[in-house]
Design a protein that fits this description.
single chain, about 425 residues, alpha+beta, Beta-clip-like, 3 domains, 4-stranded mixed β-sheet, 3-stranded antiparallel β-sheet, globular, binds zinc ion, methyltransferase
């Protein structure tokens, strides 16, 4: 009989990480069995395996969740034409877990503009939203309004049914036709309680979902081909359901289930079944064509609504815009691209995506989803809350290695930190 040994923590952790990354969909018992068959000399209890996988954030909630929903899932958007934005990048499908991403098609130089993009939908930061709702920022592009003669008010506003929204130009007024009518206090008063609820609770994902729903519904009524494109975009966004996030213990300070229920009720009243006859008539005027059942279910069922919120939270840019090409970008704690709002006087919601350093053909483009100034553990924890697993980006791996080598805390060097801090501030528009 051969002697058995008890592996030390680091050794066991390394072996489990390797197994889990090679077999991401396997649950704890199967990973444990694989571990023991690969190391027949080891004595390890399943409990110990579970503990390590849990502490590393690598547990699938397979017993309670839906397989495939344990990490954000995304699809390639069928018929999506990247060339409309830029010829410098292409969409690539990496793997089931990693999903899609963008890679460089040619050499990109540091500082180069890679593309510019207007949002698919916009739920701006609340200070901007308040400006929009008090006639001080464009209701479409969110640019603060001056005294320009080009400014136009919402055309539906009347003295008995006032809508405070104004637009910076006729172009913005016309573009707003894709969303505003369903969110307009004059045309669809049933939406007011929903918007008020989102505002009061500072629930950006709910506001964004309202914007997206308004767009999808109106587009369906206006132009069926454009609807097919929009719907494909919405369905292909990376998603992780609220329930899956709750089960993972990942929700932190976000609104709880009672709030989800309340929000769902207001959402249905806003876009599907208003509470009063007058409101019903007004909504019916805007939505003349009945929605196909599958689309109605995918928008209004409670579970679908929660998935929709999860999609928004995962894909919104820091200012609250949902950008189709930008939403393809994966995370790195040392990103090689950055999104800025340069057109502050003309189109505040437009982003310019810039190269932060030279990017070689074939290299993946990445942005940061978390505050890069945070230390290693906190960055990883925040990313795990989103189901992204343990961040194994180059920077995290390097910092972890340095920390082990030094036995110290592996902080990034001062210069690197200052650089990343500047990046974050610029990303959030405070610079
Ligand atoms: Zn505008
Ligand atoms: Zn209006
Ligand atoms: Zn990282």
């Amino acid at each position: 009989m051969s002697a058995t040994i008890t592996p030390v923590e680091d050794e066991l952790k390394a072996a489990l990480l390797e197994l889990k990354s090679a077999n991401p969909t396997l649950g704890i018992p199967k990973i444990h069995a694989l571990l023991l068959s690969g190391h027949p000399e080891w004595t390890v209890s399943e409990k110990r395996t579970r503990k390590i996988l849990q502490s590393e954030g690598l547990v699938n909630n397979a017993s309670v969740g839906v397989p495939g929903q344990l990490y954000p899932t995304s699809q390639i958007i069928k018929g999506f034409d990247v060339a409309k934005y830029t010829t410098k990048v292409e969409v690539k499908h990496f793997s089931k877990i990693k999903g899609k991403g963008l890679v460089a098609k040619e050499q990109i130089k540091e500082g180069e503009t890679i593309w510019k993009e207007d949002p698919f939908a916009l739920a701006p930061e609340w200070n901007l939203y308040d400006l929009q709702m008090s006639s001080h920022a464009c209701g479409y592009c969110s640019t603060p309004l001056t005294t320009s003669p080009l400014i136009v008010p919402c055309t539906a506003s009347t003295s008995s049914m006032p809508c405070p929204v104004r637009f910076c130009s006729r172009l913005c007024l016309s573009r707003s036709g894709r969303t505003h009518p369903l969110l307009c206090a004059a045309r669809n008063p049933a939406a007011a309680p929903l918007l008020y609820f989102a505002r009061r609770n500072q629930w950006m994902a709910l506001h964004a979902l309202s914007q997206v729903t308004a767009r999808v519904l109106l587009t369906y009524n206006q132009d069926e081909k454009a609807f097919e494109e929009d719907w494909e975009i919405v369905r292909s966004l990376a998603q992780l359901g609220m329930e899956e996030r709750a089960k993972g213990g990942w929700l932190n300070a976000e609104p709880d289930r009672a709030m989800w229920k309340k929000a769902h009720k207001l959402y249905i009243q806003a876009f599907h079944e208003p509470a009063t006859e007058t409101e019903k008539k007004r909504l019916a005027k805007l939505l003349k064509k009945p929605l196909p059942q599958d689309v109605a279910d995918a928008l209004f069922d409670y579970d679908a609504f929660l998935r929709g919120l999860g999609r928004m939270s995962l894909n919104l840019e820091a200012h609250g815009g949902l950008y189709v090409l930008h939403s393809h970008l994966n995370h790195s704690c040392a990103p090689n691209v950055s999104a800025r709002h340069f057109d502050q006087r003309t189109a505040l919601s437009r982003i310019t995506v810039l190269a932060r350093r030279d990017i070689a053909p074939g290299e993946e483009l990445t942005i940061t989803y978390v505050n890069p100034e945070l230390p290693l553990e906190q960055r990883r924890r925040q990313l795990m809350e989103w189901g992204f697993g343990k961040c194994m980006c180059e920077r995290c791996v390097k910092e972890e290695r340095e920390r082990k080598a030094e036995g110290g805390d592996g902080e990034a060097n001062v210069e690197e930190k200052a650089d990343l801090e500047a990046e974050l501030k610029a990303g959030l528009g405070v610079m």
